[in-house]
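Write out structure tokens for ABC-type multidrug transport system, ATPase component.
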Amino acid sequence: MSYVLEVKDLYKTLGKREIIKGISFSIKEGEIFGFLGPNGAGKTTTIKMLVGLISPNRGSIKVMGNNIQTNKVEALKNVGAVVETPELYTYLTGRQNLQQLARIQKSITEKDIENIVEIVGLKDRIDDKVKKYSLGMKQRLGLAEALIGKPKFIILDEPTNGLDPTGIIEFRNIIKKAAKETKTAVFISSHILSEIQKLCDTVAFINNGEIQSIETINGNYNENTDNTDSNVTEKFEHVVISTKEKENCIKILNSINYIKNVTENENEINIEITEGSVPKLIFNLAKENIPVEEIYKKYLKLEDRYIELVQGGNK
């Protein structure tokens, strides 16, 4: 499988402190990749290396097969970025801002400008002066600037900072549309976990300069389920069991008092179990000679997984 971005065994030391400690990840064409971690985890340092502002001490970064360290110009031809509030010429119109880029990148045509304006939803305001734009509109124009050169890879660092809820929803939809229509790989760093959950295909959790886990979001997190009923004092975990003896397993599960719900589909059994009871469940199933092929927790919210990995440090 070919990747737009390949990061391998990346290390970075600033002063005497090792900031990045051997991280590796890859992003495919059209994939939206979330990068999550607390302040000081190494997110900003990683982004600076991805755009060639600083160099790693060890490891490699490749964009479309081009190594940023040895072939920087070719690698960065394929990279666009929006870092918080984009830098814009406020005394010019939105269109004129894009035309300034077209003068630098000779391959950009008026048709390209019209297409990107359509994608970011600025068609009705593109000929207004940027000083009249709302923050959300400026973010859209910044995204248009990042996309107009048809990069294969864009980096978004806290792109929804300062946006109201409507602006956040609109920006999220634009990113999804851009990734789908232009097949651009997207790397997004944000503190808003709910937005990452709704936006991304894959997420990496980084803490203390190390990636704790890289996980697919679709199918692993169900944002519509919540155990926050104020009348419920007992906490439950959601667990998935795979076994060839489903019938016997379900019969046993239904007789166990610390299991709340048991449901099944074609390949697996889903249960709600009292928090902390998984080891006891494994013991009980083994005692009943149930051949369990796989058992794992199903996280209902990205926030749950973030807290476990970043605060608990479990992989």
